[in-house]
């Protein structure tokens, strides 16, 4: 946060480029990362402590973006996470030691195009069950975004979707209310969307962002010095009168759209 401040005040920010994936009141609240992590952590802990044959498969849809989840699970449970390749993390030393290419671990985030099919046969994407000829007890946890409207009550961050499958709330993106809070706080001159939320248009996203920017607010006029006071002399025929004049007030700028 200190990068946004200078001398104890919020910096004067001209333009902000935002992740607007969920910039829509439909996505008013998304449970916090900490709350989601706690849910996943408890589920994984309760499963893998049953026996060494109890394993968890994190069904992640992308190769990147789950590092927060992997590192925290590994740190809390002391179990490395199986991934297909380590070279993609070679420039991330903080993450690297939480990951492994050794399949004999109880947490897997390995991937395979037919992974969901494999899972129906109680087989991990890395094929561990068939290779070692041991029966594994596997559950799958699919991290996916869950959202709640302004007035909807938040429910559990873990949802059971099948006998051994779960969906866990996990989001890389800010909710609508977080975007609003952030912009209201830093109050930039302009804000630009990086993503158009599903079902919306650029204009619609701008309609949400603009009222939170200074470019559309006239309430706080820009400070402009009045300039030097001029002393003008008006000479009358019968007397000498001295009047102090101030320059005419300038027309306020900044309200044009
Ligand atoms: Zn694996």
Question: Can you offer a commentary on this structure?
Answer:
Residues 237-257 have low confidence and may be disordered. The chain has a domain at 31-169: 3-Layer(aba) Sandwich (Rossmann fold). The two termini are 30 Å apart. It is elongated and about 105 Å long. It has 257 residues and is an alpha/beta fold. It has helices spanning 33-48, 67-77, 93-96, 115-120, 128-132, 176-186, 202-209; strands at residues 5-6, 9-10, 15-18, 54-58, 81-82, 99-100, 107-108, 137-144, 158-160, 165-169, 190-193, 230-235, 240-245. A hairpin with a 4-residue loop joins strand 9 and strand 10 (165-169). It contains seven helices and 13 strands. Helix 1 packs across helix 2. The relative contact order is 0.19. The strands form four sheets. Strands 6-5-7-4-8-10-9 form a seven-stranded mixed beta sheet. It binds zinc ion. Zinc ion binds at residues 82, 103, 108, 110, 124-126, 128. It holds the Pfam family DRMBL. It comes from Rattus norvegicus (Rat). Residues 94-197 form the DNA repair metallo-beta-lactamase domain.
Question: What's the topology here?
Answer:
Blueprint: E1 5-6, E2 9-10, E3 15-18, H1 33-48, E4 54-58, H2 67-77, E5 81-82, H3 93-96, E6 99-100, E7 107-108, H4 115-120, H5 128-132, E8 137-144, E9 158-160, E10 165-169, H6 176-186, E11 190-193, H7 202-209, E12 230-235, E13 240-245
Parallel strand pairs: 3-11, 4-7, 4-8, 5-6, 5-7, 8-10
Antiparallel strand pairs: 1-2, 9-10, 12-13
The structure holds zinc ion.
Zinc ion binds next to loops.
């Amino acid at each position: 946060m200190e990068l946004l401040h200078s001398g104890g005040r919020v910096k004067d920010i001209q333009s902000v480029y935002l992740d607007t994936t969920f910039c829509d009141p439909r996505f008013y609240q998304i449970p916090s990362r900490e709350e989601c992590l706690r849910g996943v952590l408890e589920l994984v802990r309760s499963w893998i402590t049953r026996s060494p044959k109890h394993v968890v498969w994190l069904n992640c849809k992308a190769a990147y973006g789950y590092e927060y989840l992997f590192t925290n699970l590994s740190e809390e449970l002391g179990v490395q996470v199986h991934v297909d390749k380590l070279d993609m993390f070679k420039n991330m030393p903080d993450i690297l030691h939480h990951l492994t290419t050794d399949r004999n671990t109880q947490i897997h985030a390995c991937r395979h195009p037919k992974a969901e099919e494999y899972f129906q046969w109680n087989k991990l994407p890395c094929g561990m069950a068939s290779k070692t000829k041991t029966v594994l007890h596997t559950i799958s946890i699919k991290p996916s975004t869950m959202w709640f409207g302004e007035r909807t009550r938040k429910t559990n961050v873990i949802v059971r979707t099948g006998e051994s499958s779960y969906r866990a709330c996990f989001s890389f993106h800010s909710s609508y209310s977080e975007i609003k809070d952030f912009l209201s706080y830093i109050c930039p001159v302009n804000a630009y969307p990086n993503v158009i939320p599903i079902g919306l248009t650029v204009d619609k996203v701008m309609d949400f962002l603009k009222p939170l920017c200074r470019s559309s607010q006239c309430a706080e006029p820009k400070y402009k010095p009045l300039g030097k006071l001029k002393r003008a002399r008006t000479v009358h025929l019968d007397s000498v009168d001295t009047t102090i004049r101030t320059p005419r007030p300038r027309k306020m700028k900044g309200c044009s759209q």
